[in-house]
Design a protein that fits this description.
mainly beta; Double-stranded beta-helix; 6-stranded antiparallel beta sheet; 4 helices
């Protein structure tokens, strides 16, 4: 039996989103500052630069976290490596080496509360079933998800152009039905959602934070020829083809 006081009922904390087993809170003011830091804290608050945290209710779902994301737990909470055997370990190590994500993502089970480390980034809760059960993430955005969701490495369709464009060759894909939590460089209110049906999206820069697993993702010249690309001044662009949706950040701010 446990009781948590001065947390969600603190007048400095605001619940800004809820989905599934996840609650996202935001600290309205940074009260733990010194006189030397007060001016910076004041202007950070005015510009929506605030600490945010995720609270996970393990009674609703087991969790898979990015390594090092846990801050504290209370109740009957158990942590495991999430590794099912030698083959699973090798597969996760390989996926981590090509996607840049941590090879081992701990899993938490039980009937208690799990609170993640605070961050100044924006926290997005996504229902993967609304993406036809498959979503691909830009590097470094994964924070947590329901343990029932599967992870895989998704390769670019044309490896040579990815190398030329200084992009990674693989991205982390999440599959299944469940909730996913991302650390976004910009708030949900500013994200542009593009829905496509047998169409093409071209983006100059690494501005897509997530896209449907059904889309073909390549890196290509912006024009049909080298001369055309040089004339446009764009060079290589990220191209998404097919049917699905893409979430775009309005600016690159990572």
């Amino acid at each position: 039996m446990y009781e948590i006081k001065n947390f969600l009922n603190n007048d400095d904390i605001k619940v800004i989103d809820r989905l599934g087993a996840y609650t996202v809170i935001e600290y309205q003011r940074d009260l733990s500052v010194t006189p030397m830091e007060a001016q910076l804290a004041y202007y950070c608050n005015a510009m929506n630069v605030r600490k945010r945290q995720v609270i996970c209710d393990l009674r609703k779902s087991d969790m898979t976290l990015q390594a090092g994301a846990m801050q504290w737990t209370v109740g009957n909470v158990n942590a495991t490596t999430g590794v099912k055997g030698v083959g699973d370990l090798l597969g996760k190590a390989l996926r981590g080496s090509v996607t840049g994500e941590s090879a081992i993502k701990p899993e938490y089970t039980g009937e208690g509360i799990l609170v993640l480390e605070p961050t100044y980034k924006h926290l997005l809760l996504i229902d993967v079933s609304q993406w036809n059960g498959s979503i691909v993430l830009d590097d470094g955005l994964f924070l947590a998800c329901d343990a029932s969701l599967k992870h895989r490495a998704v390769a670019r369709s044309n490896i040579s152009s990815a190398v030329a464009g200084n992009e990674g060759l693989f991205n982390l894909g999440i599959m299944g039905n469940g909730i996913l939590c991302l650390e976004s460089p910009c708030p949900k209110e500013e994200l542009v959602e593009i829905n496509m049906t047998d169409d093409v999206l071209k983006v100059d820069g690494n501005m897509a934070i997530a896209w449907s697993g059904s889309l073909e993702f390549t890196v290509e010249r912006s024009g049909k020829s080298l001369v055309g690309s040089a004339a446009s001044g764009e060079g290589l662009v990220n191209v998404y083809r097919g049917t699905g949706k893409v979430l775009l950040a309005p600016v690159i701010n990572k």
